[in-house]
Amino acid sequence: DDTLFALVDGYVRFERRRGRRVVSVYPG
Questions:
Q1: Which pTM value belongs to this model?
Q2: Tally of domains within the chain
């Protein structure tokens, strides 16, 4: 279950891996 947020300078993806929150930033 991933949540994708559209930002002005890119995309920030919040994931849950084994109970941990992983934040990935994609330039756009």
A1: 0.36
A2: 1
